[in-house]
Amino acid sequence: MAEYLEVWHGTVLVERMPRLRGCRKHLINYRHVIDWLVRKPGAFAAYRYQDSLFPTSRFRRVYDALLEHSPARAAKDYLRILELAAKESEAGVDAVLGRLLEWNVPITPTVVEEHLRHDLGLPRAMEVVVTTVDLSSYDLLLETREDFPLANQQTCMNL
Predict the structure, then answer these.
(1) What pLDDT band is residue 125 in, cutting at 50, 70 and 90?
(2) Domain range for residue 103?
(3) Which of 97, 91, 103, 105 is nearest to 78 (CA)?
């Protein structure tokens, strides 16, 4: 049996997901439900598949921090942060959340969006330095090949 389910629209692969075997298994992509949840944030607290809406452990830690600081706004704020991840960049939002958690500052959707817009918290591209290679060592290999006696060269060719 196939290990993946694929959704095709004509000749275009739209979605590929692992096949889940057994009872009571689910795979929820938060990007598919985020618009609905943002419109009805009260539904998040009792959402059956809430654990699927934390793409990384940082998102979960942020939701827990929001619950601790302002329980009344926690779901609404978290869903706005998750919406940023869905519509902008999950990796970018995750990096910003990591930085904000490290700094131990209050996290709000506005702060996350500002950091995301200003590229703060995102890992910088590494500078790559390519050194020049000394090719004279290869010349030495060619010189030693010429030093083989003719008999040895013929023996090598016959093999």
Answers:
(1) low
(2) 28-117
(3) 97
Counted domains in the chain: 1
Residue 4 lies in a domain: no
Q: Are strands 4-9 and 12-18 parallel, antiparallel or unpaired?
A: antiparallel
d(CA 8, CA 139): 55
Residue type, 61: R
CA distances from 53 to 45, 60, 70, 79, 103 (A): 11, 9, 20, 9, 24
* pTM: predicted TM-score of the whole model, two decimal places: 0.67
98, 87, 106, 101: which is closest to 122 by C-alpha? 98
Using an 8 Å Cβ cutoff, are 70 and 77 in contact? yes
Residue 96 lies in a domain: yes
